Amino acid sequence: MVTQKDIADHVGVSRTAVSLVLNNAPNSTVSEKTRQLILKAAKELGYKDSDVMPKICYVFYNRNSNDPRYFLQLKIAEETAARFGYSLVFMNIKPNPQDHRRLKELAKSQDTAGILVSGVLDDTVIGILEETKVPHLYYGCTDRTDIHVVTSDYKKVAYDAVKYLIELGHRRIAFFSGSLSLLIIKKELAGYTQALQDAGIELDKSLIQTGKDEDGDELCSRLHELDIRYTAAYCTNTVIQFGVLQGLKRLGIDVPGEISLIGHEYSELVKFSVPQLTTMLMSGTQKELPVTRLIDIIQRNQTETLYECITEYELFPGGTTAPRP
User: pTM for the full model?
Assistant: First the structure.
């Protein structure tokens, strides 16, 4: 049987590129020329893998289609699913009736073995999945206890990151995040606050800067214009962290010489940034848990509600933190 690896070797590209093309991944960075070469090779070699393997659909719900965090999540999910004999398809949908119909059609398809949903959850999506009875799991931050969930201990990861900055001697630590209306941000703010409190550092609310658009450049510019001093910052994701880094460079502020930055999660921005971003990463096989747990639910026909919290994180040192000057 011809595999995606065979196609990758034939064309001379990565297996991830082949997966992105064959599964029509959203916002793929694969060039049109390479895409056509992959499709041609798949046809000539007689690729049938995706037709016979049961499918897991990874649904990104109400998320920014340009989010660079997509690609690593998709790569890990695809590789994990393939190891268990499943192919992976991707769908990026918004909270509107047309996309809700697309999700319903996908869930009712005989080819769909299970659905993994990531994004800002709402009752409409839960209702659709419950109605169709397809095995499904939510990967993200929610207080719901009546659905299968894999989540992260967002409070702990923020606490550990801020504690690391405190151990480097920092006391004036900013908090840069998206909208405080999001549960995930509330949990990370709680971790940030707790770390300061445990170190005997008084909370300065002027250092808490949030924005719906997650524009790190704009967030750090506010503090600069208001002349609010800080020597370090915790950023709730690497998209914000990268924006803060660019904003500080534009202002002529050295990172990490004058201000240290630490973030959460991994994206392509981490390794392409100069300097590389310091961030908190999931440890080892923890990254595979959403897919492996969904496969458990599919294969065991699990009815008891699953709730699992990822707590193991490690520091990727990067180059954006240093002792307080």
Answer: 0.81
